[in-house]
Amino acid sequence: MFLREDKNEKKYMKRKIIIIGPTYPYRGGNSLFVTFLYDALSENYNVQVLNYKLLYPNILFPGKTQFDLSNEVKKIESIRLVNSINPISWFEVAKYINKANPDLVIFDWWHPFFAFCHFTISSLLKKELKNKVVFIPENFISHEKNLFENVLTRIGLSKAKYFIALSHKVENDLKLIAGGRKIFRSELPVYNHLAGEVTQVDEIRKKFGINQNEKVLLFFGYIRKYKGLDLLLEGLKILIDKAEHLNLKLLVAGEFYDDKKFYLELINKFNLQNFVQIFDEYIPNEKVKEFFIVSDLVVLPYRSATQSGILNLSYGFNKPVVITDVGGLSEFVIPEKTGIIAKESTPESISDAILKYFELSGQVDFKVNIKEYCEKNSFKDFKEIIDNIFKEISE
After folding, report:
1. Residue 285 within any structural domain of the chain
2. Could you please report the per-residue DSSP string of 318-361?
3. What residues make up the domain containing 121?
C-alpha cells in the first residue's frame, strides 16, 4: 500500500502525504513530534511538511522566543507556508494542497487557537481529498481550558475523516465527537535523539554543584500551573522532613510561563533554598543531556495531561519517572518498573511516590525495564496505521 500508480508514465510511485504542522525553526514538543512523524513515514512514503511561517503572534506567546536557537537541532525539510492568523494564507495552503493532490493530508492538532485555520484549510480541499484528511490530536483540548475551547475544538476537527489518538484518554475524548469517523491508536515516539553515550557524569555533577551523595530530582520543561511545580515543591518539603537521609536536590530546568515570584516565595516559605536549583531558560538541545545525565528521577507532578513529551524524553535517557495519575500519563508507566504513579495530584501523594522510588531503586532495574518498554513503543508501527487508513480509503 506504499505505492500508487502514475497513469501518465505507466509506473508506480510512492504515495504522497502532506503534513500540516510545526517543525524547525520552531521549538517545543509539537515541532519535535512532527519531525519524528516525518522520519517515521518518509522511508515508505513521499512526505512533505507544510510548516508555519507564523505560528503564534508574539503577543499570545508567553515565552521569550518561539524559535529553536540550539546549536544541535534535528532538522527536516519543510515549506513555511501556513500563517495561523492570516486567512489569505489559509486559501494559499489549500490551493497548494489541491494542486499537489496528495494521497493523504495529515493535520497535527494541539490547541483550539488553530481551529479556524485548520477548519478553513480542510474545508477548501477539493472533493476527492476530503475523504483523505487525518487529524492527529496531541491534545483533544488544551490543558488550560476556557469557555470556548470545546466549541473551537469541534470546529477545528470537524472536517477530519480519520483520527489518530496518541493516548486512550484522547481516544475516549474523540469518541464524543467522532460520530462514525474511525479513530486509530498510537502514541508519542520515544525521544532518544539527544541521549548518546553517557560520559563525564562526575564533571557535570561538579558543574551543577551537586555532591556525589546527593539524589537528584529533575523537573524539566516550561512552568505553568497545570504542570504542578508548586505541588512538587511542597512535596519536597514533606519528603525532606520525613526522609532527610535521602539528601535530595531538585533541578528545575525550563522557562517560566507563570509568575516566577510565586515559586520563589514557595521556596523561601518551605526553606528549600539549599535544595532547589532553578534554570530559568528554554534549555537548548546541546544542554538537555546534562540535566538528564545527572538526574536520578524525573518528576512530572501534573494537575492535568494527555500524554507528555517530557515523559518520552525521560525514557529516551533511560530515566525512571514519578507521574501523577491524571489524563493519559499512567498509560505510559508500568508501576514500580518504569516509574511510580502518584495516586493524586497532591504534595503528600507526590512525596510518597518519590520515596517509594528510592525504596525500590536498589531492588528494581528500572533502566532495563524502560529499555524493554521502549522497544514496544507503538509509534514504531505508525506506518502500519497509515497503511490501514489507505485501505479504508480504497474500500
Report:
1. yes
2. T--EEEES-TTGGGG--BTTTEEEESSSSHHHHHHHHHHHHHHT
3. 3-189+378-394
242 has a pLDDT exceeding 80: yes
State whether 25 and 152 are in the same domain. yes
C-alpha grid cell, residue 328: 493519559
The reported pLDDT for the residue numbered 384 is 94
Q: Are residues 118 and 158 in the same domain?
A: yes
Bond before 25 cis per omega within 30 degrees: yes
d(CA 333, CA 336): 9
Q: What is the pLDDT confidence band of residue 145, given thresholds at 50, 70 and 90?
A: low
Query: Which contiguous run of DSSP H or E holds residue 108?
Result: strand 104-109
Mean pLDDT of 346-359: 97
CATH number at residue 119: 3.40.50.2000
Element housing 123 (H / E)? helix 115-123
Please report whether residue 194 resides in a domain.
Answer: no
Residues 339 and 262 in one domain: yes
In percent, the amount of the chain with pLDDT more than 90 equals 76
Residue 50 in domain: yes
Per-residue confidence at 31, pLDDT binned at 50, 70, 90?
Answer: very high
Residues paired with 54 in a beta bridge: 83
What amino acid is encoded at 145 in this protein?
K
Confirm whether 195 is domain-assigned.
Answer: no
Task: State pLDDT tens for residues 174-217.
Answer: 998 999 899 999 999 999 888 766 668 888 899 999 988 899 99
Distances (CA, A) of 378 to 188, 387, 390: 8, 15, 19
Decide if pLDDT at 43 tops 80. yes
Average pLDDT over residues 94-120: 97
Provide the angle, in degrees to the nearest 10, between the axes of the packed helices 29-42 and 382-394: 70
C-alpha closest to that of 29 among 74, 78, 92, 86 = 74
- Within 13 Å, how many C-alpha atoms sit on residue 230's CB side? 15
> Which amino acid type is present at position 244?
E
